[in-house]
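Quick one: Transcriptional regulator, LysR family from Marinobacterium lutimaris, structure tokens please.
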Amino acid sequence: MVEDVKVQITLEQWQTLVAVVDSGGYAKAAEALGKSQSAVSYAIQRLEERLGIAVFRIEGRKAALTEAGEALYRQAQSLLDSARLTEELAHHYSSGSEARIRLAIDLIFPEHLTLCALARYAEISPFVRIELLETALSGTDEALIRGDAEMVISSRIPPGFVGDFLMRIRFVPVAHPDHPLHQLGRSLTHDDLRRHRQLVVRDSGSRSLNEGWLGADQRWTVSHMSTSILCACSGLGFSWYPELKISKEVEKGLLKPLPMESSSERFADLYLIKRDAHLSSPGVKRLAELFQSAVKDFEAKGGNPLTA
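--- reply ---
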């Protein structure tokens, strides 16, 4: 039968151990902790007595960690870090901050801007859980209407909500350089496009919107834009994509803009919409500001994702 051994070491005693090691001695540890040297020595003595082992050994005029002391020192550091994070977490909740923020962001919004804003938010609010829904078309609106998101980035503002303009997205028609459309050697019409396979991203909502579809008989529908872009790079079809989403593929020669007879550009304005607008929590408001700042910084650099 194994007997339970209860060793009661206070957090303050572990803090004293770490301070002695980090400061290089009892005198400097006492100064760092704002205590007398005798109080520090007594705390270490009591720690060793309760543990039943020597934590330090004397080498000349200095105290060095024993093998056991080195192991305990590393664990004490981890323990103090955990205690600090626990206190910060308690302060986070006592200040009224939320435990999580749910976002719904349309797939046409540049991912690198999302990551930039979230990374900055994580630095100031590391304990807030982020739940990100990557949506398409009506799926973004519905996440807001159903209450599944505190904030969304969408190309439409549902009735009853207020949105702030965020950025304009430019779409261009592209296909692989070896695609038959590029082999025609002339400007293309929409009738030309209808004779070839169009790649379409599925509406993640319940309305099954078909924005951008030209009515082509040959149509592949996928659930994510990255899959659609991969299909286009493989020569399996053409599509209109946000210019910012395919800049690298175009630069590498995997995709090439189609030479349309009439204007080939399409645009979509994106809006940042908070579910409760003026009643949003401080965390949601701060995150919204970081998204706006990320877009502003990006556009100030010329809007090139390769240099952002």
